[in-house]
From TrEMBL:
Signal peptide: none annotated. It comes from Streptomyces mashuensis. Pfam families: Biotin_carb_C (PF02785), Biotin_carb_N (PF00289), Biotin_lipoyl (PF00364), CPSase_L_D2 (PF02786). The keyword Transmembrane does not apply. Its cofactor is biotin. Transmembrane segments: none annotated. This is biotin carboxylase. Residues 428-507 form the Lipoyl-binding domain. Its EC number is 6.3.4.14. The keyword Ligase applies.
């Protein structure tokens, strides 16, 4: 049983059930998954292994008051992190004491939604750090190798957008410490299989252990490309009891992975579900594509935003960047927003391409010049005419679902429904930007309300939280666009909003 890299791949109970059924589990031992999946326990393992660590709580906190107390003792900023999760979900960074309660509540909600458990712990947050990780393999005979380092610093909302191998612009001493600490952590945990040790590297060169991902990573292809090692094949060999038979491999060349996400880079990377009307990937030397969509695929708001992965490799980092620029220019995805325009811009940005490497995990939010225009979808009629498809809303078992249909079939359904006294609702065309203007506060995206922070008649200031939306597994706060009094609010927790839907009005 190979679990891929979804949530089941890090589920110790599932791994144990596979073994109990008499099957071979192609992954780490259940106890190692359990120990390293608990981020607090993982910190204890790292401490015993002598890995570098910043200050953190020894156990999960019981509430926002404990978070504030930690911040008062150790200083700001701090990171509030899901104890049983990862991948950026359930991770919030507090830079002021006043925002701790809301960020703590948000981290708990995201953790429960993503991992089924809401416990969180707290640690000092290295400001403007790089995210550097090691791809590791460990066999059943006590051998551990580091396949390669990777840099994953280009992130939004603490989730990766671009990864590369090897991690560039590190000193020999930093590389040596990353290799040493990674091997020590995995040996201390009794680890077997493929795993990734993640670290933060501060502006002053400080290295701090972050977590171990007990599975194959989304970004694993870049390590394969620069070593020639098939990581999935190695997982099967290890599960079959074979020794690795080699030491840390020599790195050959440089490789980038660009995540092609369904997000609107011109609107702050808001999730943008929709229908892929055209999907034409690039090709050529050094270009590899791992994709889960095709022309006609419908991407709903309940799913992760990852559509495909573009992997580009060259003999040097410079050549890989040149090839990436060409491949991204050729990549054609139509019908919905993607982050391709961001990738096209970042591969020519000196902060990313040159030494000194100035990218860090919040570079996109704080320093990147985002002049990318918002995605403008065609009007509903134009979309149906140009693509021969349209989207209708149907109700199944009390739930509303968006369904992409050939335009002719959609019209047939409309006529049939009309004859029966009911008419299916067509989805309104998505607006190219938030419709907050004048008094009206409108939803900038499609999503589900998970929190309402105001009530009718309440006074708010510009920037105050009004509601929190969830889409594509991530929360998005919607803040007041002006100061005034809340009027006409109809938002309820659990309700679905379309892009452009009016949440309330804020009047003088």
């Amino acid at each position: 049983m190979h679990p891929g890299y979804g949530f089941l791949s890090e589920n110790a109970e599932f791994a144990q059930a596979v073994l109990d059924a008499g099957l071979t589990w192609i992954g780490p031992p259940p106890q190692a998954i359990r120990d390293l999946g608990d981020k607090v326990a993982a910190r204890h393992i790292a401490q015993r292994a002598g890995a570098p660590l910043v200050a953190g709580t020894p156990d999960p906190v019981s509430g926002a008051d404990e978070v504030v107390a930690f911040a008062r003792e150790h200083g700001l900023p701090i990171a509030i992190k899901a104890a049983f999760g990862g991948g950026g979900r359930g991770l919030k960074v507090a830079r002021t004491l006043e925002e701790v309660p809301e960020l703590y509540d948000s981290a708990v909600r995201e953790a429960v939604a993503a991992f089924g458990r809401g416990e969180c712990f707290v640690e000092r947050y290295l400001d403007r750090p790089r995210h550097v990780e090691t791809q590791c393999l460990a066999d059943q005979h006590g051998n551990v190798v580091v396949v390669s380092t990777r840099d994953c610093s280009l992130q939004r909302r603490h989730q990766k957008l671009v990864e590369e191998a090897p991690a560039p612009f590190l000193s020999e001493e930093q590389n040596a410490e990353l290799y040493r600490a990674s091997k020590a952590i995995l040996k201390e945990a009794g680890y077997v299989g493929a795993g990734t040790c993640e670290f933060l590297v501060g502006q002053d060169g400080t290295i701090s252990f972050l977590e171990v991902n007990t599975r194959l990573q989304v970004e694993h292809p870049v390590s394969e490309e620069v070593t020639g090692i098939d990581l999935v094949r190695e997982m099967f060999r290890i599960a079959d009891g074979e020794p690795l038979g080699y030491d840390d491999p020599e790195i050959r060349g440089h490789s980038f992975e660009f995540r092609i996400n369904g997000e609107d880079a011109g609107r702050g990377f808001l999730p943008a579900p929709g229908t892929v009307t055209t999907f034409t990937p690039p090709s050529g030397p050094g270009v590899r594509l791992d994709a889960g969509v095709e022309s006609g695929s419908v991407i709903g708001p309940a799913w992760d935003s990852l559509l495909a992965k573009l992997i580009v490799t060259g003999a040097t980092r410079e050549q890989a960047l040149q090839r990436a620029s060409r491949a991204l220019a050729e990549f054609k995805v139509e019908g919905m927003a993607t982050v391709i325009p961001f990738h096209q811009k970042v591969v020519t940005d000196p902060a990313f391409t040159s030494d000194p490497f100035r990218v860090h995990t919040r570079w996109i939010e704080t320093e990147f010049t985002n002049d990318i225009p918002p995605f403008a979808s065609p009007a509903a009629g134009e979309e149906a005419e140009e693509t021969g498809r349209e989207t209708v809303v149907v109700e199944v078992g009390g739930k509303r679902l968006e369904v992409s249909l050939p335009a002719s079939l959609g019209m047939t359904i409309a006529r049939t429904a009309a004859a029966g006294g009911a008419k299916p609702k067509r989805r309104a065309a998505r607006k190219s930007g938030p419709a907050a203007s004048g008094d009206a506060l409108a939803s900038p995206m499609q999503g589900t309300i998970v929190k309402v922070a105001v009530e009718e008649g309440q006074q708010v200031n510009e920037g105050d939280l009004v509601v929190v939306l969830e889409a594509m597994k991530m929360e998005q706060p919607i803040n007041a666009h002006r100061s005034g009094t809340i009027k006409g609010i109809t938002a309820e927790v659990g309700a679905s909003l379309t892009s452009g839907a009016v949440i309330c009005e804020i009047k003088d």
